[in-house]
Amino acid sequence: MKPDELSVFPAGGENTAFTAWFSGKCWLNMLSTEQVPIGNVTFEPGCRNNWHIHHAAKGGGQMLLVTAGRGYYQEWGSPARELAPGDVVHIPAGVKHWHGAAPDSWFQHLAIEVPGEECATEWCEPVSDEAYNNLKGAEDPWKK
Ligand code: MN
Q: What pTM did the predictor assign?
């Protein structure tokens, strides 16, 4: 599987600017840099980002539209939500979370930067291998 074969959206180049905050390889293609910024983010199997917070004084936060593969979204203190193509995730400003691929699957989502005031992302600690490897059998309350 190549990143460009995952969906109709080109994966772009490997995202080497974010390696400090990702475990594993990811690709980033900014589909929109005007009006509402939208990036296409592709994760290799096992790749996920560190815990992080999208801060904003007003509005802000992030939306994820899943386009391919299988992955996870988890908020601090809550069980992980398993994600499949077509899923939509609303991430409020100020909520600590991570998102990324399942251990055995590529994963791709569009990341929409919700407009706001004084928006800034704070990067925190990595998702531990122990916590991540335990996700596979995690109960998924969102799955119907
Ligand atoms: Mn995020």
A: 0.92
